Amino acid sequence: MRRERLTGPRPVRSALHTVDLDLAEGASLGVIGESGSGKTTLVRLLLGLDTPTRGAVTVDGRPVVRRRTGGRGTDLRWLRRQTGIVFQDPYASLDPRMDVGTIVAEPLHALGLAGTPDETDDVVARVLTAVGLEPAMVDRYPHEFSGGQRQRIALARALVHRPRLLVGDEPLSALDVTVRAQILDLLRGLRADLGLTLILVSHDIGVVAHLCDQVLVLKDGRTVESGATADVLAHPRADYTRSLLAAVPRL
């Protein structure tokens, strides 16, 4: 039996291998695959939340590189201004100590985009209205809302600074079927109205089929196949993709 010292070098595991991805502005991409396939790692690299050991990520030809500035932060504010993200659990992603107005306005202050208090209040009111919430809700706290309403709050926070790219990491999986359909319709409408580029990570192939023009299938950190969503889902080339489609429940 081979023994390894506890103080020895840590084993290296690759969460993501070579993935070539080119997304045009205004496009919508669905990333699908089983748990552990590398979907979230890919998103974190695209957003500059992690640093790749090899390869490069560029936005408008500008490299996404996490370099330390004079303080504790990194010099990726330019990227943060262009991107917004919605996470899987709408309750865990919202600070329970903050009211809705503070939560939604937080990106404006963090990115140096906030104007006067009245101007900021107007921006928050407009984005809450856009996601189907009443502006009068700004004084309430996350625990006072349903799951669907909390996800709308998270969506408002992701859109308040008017990003060009919206990333959803399983944004619908924690919601029931009825609420999921409502948020799906909301995302489709917002994408059309705001001209958003969309990257959607999801286990739900039906959501990807309805919302995304392109699809990327990952397995063990590698690209299995990619292309137009309608083509890949109707005529999958890879056995793995066919297995994913065969696992979709049908009534």
TrEMBL record:
One Pfam family this sequence matches: ABC_tran
Sorted UniProt keywords: ATP-binding, Nucleotide-binding, Transport
The keyword NADP is annotated on this UniProt entry: no
GO biological process, one term: transmembrane transport
InterPro entries: AAA+_ATPase (IPR003593), ABC_transp_ATP-bind (IPR050319), ABC_transporter-like_ATP-bd (IPR003439), ABC_transporter-like_CS (IPR017871), P-loop_NTPase (IPR027417)
Start and end residues of each ABC transporter domain: 1-245
GO molecular function: ATP binding; ATP hydrolysis activity
SMART domains (UniProt xref): AAA (SM00382)
Similarity remark: Belongs to the ABC transporter superfamily.
Name the UniProt record assigns to this protein: ABC transporter ATP-binding protein
Source organism of this protein record: Tersicoccus phoenicis
